[in-house]
Amino acid sequence: RFIHGYGDSMEPTFNDGDILLVDGGIRAVDVDGVYVLEANDRLFIKRVTERIGGGYEITSDNPKVKTVQELAGDEQVNVLGRVVWVWNGKKL
Fold it and tell me: How far apart are CA 23 and CA 31, in angstroms?
């Protein structure tokens, strides 16, 4: 699927309004990467990194936003896909 990224939390990886190609067939974190997540009836596009001791770390790429969430397995988070491509074209 193609979706738009909104907000500045993932800059410089992608910018507000950039088009993202999401592989919706990926429904679990199989490698570290940028994923579309659903939690608390909201969608999030965040970087997911597996921790050495287990669990996952959810972060934003923008150091000004500083979003960090550790998941130990007791939170309800659904993986809706992995972002596999970003188009940073110029808007006309």
Answer: 13
Q: Name the residue among 50, 68, 65 with its Cα closest to residue 13.
A: 65
Residue with tokens 């074209």: 89
47 vs 33: CA distance, rounded Å: 6
* Cα–Cα distance for residue pair 47/56, rounded to 1 Å: 10
Residue 54 CA to residue 26 CA, distance in Å, equals 20
Tell me, yes or no, if the pTM score tops 0.90.
Answer: no
pLDDT in tens, 72-85: 666 789 999 999 99
Edge to edge, what strands does the sheet with 33-39 contain? 2-4, 19-23, 78-87, 33-39, 42-50, 56-59, 68-71
